[in-house]
Amino acid sequence: MKNRPALARIVARVEGRVQGVGFRFFVCDRARALGLSGAVRNLPTGSVHVEAEGSRESLTTLIEDLHEGPPAARVERVGVEWHEPRGAGGFLIEAG
Fold first, then answer.
1. Is residue 48 part of a domain?
2. Cα–Cα separations (whole angstroms), residue 60 to 1, 36, 52, 53, 78
3. Do the Cβ atoms of 21 and 86 come closer than 8 Å?
4. Are residues 94 and 38 in contact, defined by beta-carbon separation less than 8 angstroms?
5. What does the pLDDT read at residue 1?
6. How many domains does the chain have?
7. % pLDDT > 70, the chain
8. In this structure, how many other beta carbons lie within 10 angstroms of the beta carbon of residue 15?
């Protein structure tokens, strides 16, 4: 039997010029391509909140992508916390 990858969940806050530049759509596309579940939404502070779960390898790749963002974004800071997975399904863009 093949070992299953260790699963985890991240909660990230991305700060900078990350609203109005397609950041949520960028995150959603990348997360889905990586096979991750979770959600992304804008916060009233001008930052973006990301919760994602899946393999640690895929989450690490997503974190790297969060530091880059889409071409029009200017990411200044990415704060990440690691947690136990909750069993989320799919990846959504939430209003906010």
1. yes
2. 25, 11, 11, 11, 13
3. no
4. no
5. 46
6. 1
7. 95
8. 16
